[in-house]
Write a structure and sequence with these properties.
227 residues; Rossmann fold; six-stranded mixed β-sheet
């Protein structure tokens, strides 16, 4: 049976300051999408509102723009997927084995309080599917509750972009909140690598998370191993 993956991307184009653009960190999608495609999995892309998913400009410049992201940028069919993402209302969670939350700072604004994404995540997880996220994508798990009212992340090992990495990236002062601290407030057992910006993924049962942009591929590999 063909496995089905649901990727989640942001609709947000800028920080609170409209002159500070942001969006999807493209390689966090492409590394996973390409790996899942090699496995023959079916894939769709959803966003909180549907429609266009803007791209993070910093991720499109050297040295961060890698071969995988470059290939997507030059492929009209691939880019069309990001111009016309699906709305949560049009997604039946029963059709998917995995939900994978991508990152980019944009997701800090529209992932946490999307009831549509929370519904899909809860349904996939409670049916025995895999919930995964990379980098800031874990913000999409902050407020997701299971049917019994408990938080999905409570008591679970998890990783995501650390506050130290925000500081080193020079953007901490522009963040709407400290995602690492918010995860800990919710009872998550947050972990991070000894060094910043290196690949790191954490698996806790059917919850798979990666720490930063460099972790997309290893996170996707963990998902494939579970499948």
């Amino acid at each position: 049976m063909t496995r089905r993956i649901l990727h989640v991307v942001s609709n947000v184009a800028h920080y609170d300051d409209p002159s500070h653009p942001t969006g999807l960190w493209l390689s966090e999608l492409t590394h996973a999408y390409d790996l899942f495609e090699e496995q023959g999995y079916e894939q769709r892309i959803v966003s909180p509102k549907g429609g266009v998913s803007p791209l993070e400009p910093r991720a499109l410049k050297w040295p961060l723009l890698d071969a995988s992201a470059k290939a997507w940028l030059s492929d009209l069919e691939r880019m069309a997927l990001l111009s016309n993402t699906t709305s949560p209302d049009d997604i039946d969670p029963a059709n998917f084995d995995v939900i994978y939350f991508t990152g980019g700072h944009a997701v800090m604004w529209d992932f946490p309080d999307s009831t549509g994404l929370q519904r899909i995540t809860r349904d996939i997880y409670e049916r025995g599917g895999i919930v995964s996220a990379v980098c800031h994508g874990y913000c999409g798990l902050l407020n997701t509750k299971l049917s019994d009212g408990s938080l999905l992340v409570a008591g679970r090992k998890i990783t995501g972009f650390s506050w130290r990495e925000e500081v080193l990236a020079g953007v901490a002062k522009d963040m709407p909140y400290n995602a690492e601290a918010e995860m800990k407030k919710r009872g998550a057992r947050y972990e991070k690598a000894l060094l910043p910006f290196v690949p790191n993924a954490v698996t806790d049962g059917r919850l798979v998370t990666g720490q930063n942009p460099a972790s997309a591929k290893v996170t996707a590999k963990r998902v494939v191993d579970l499948l």
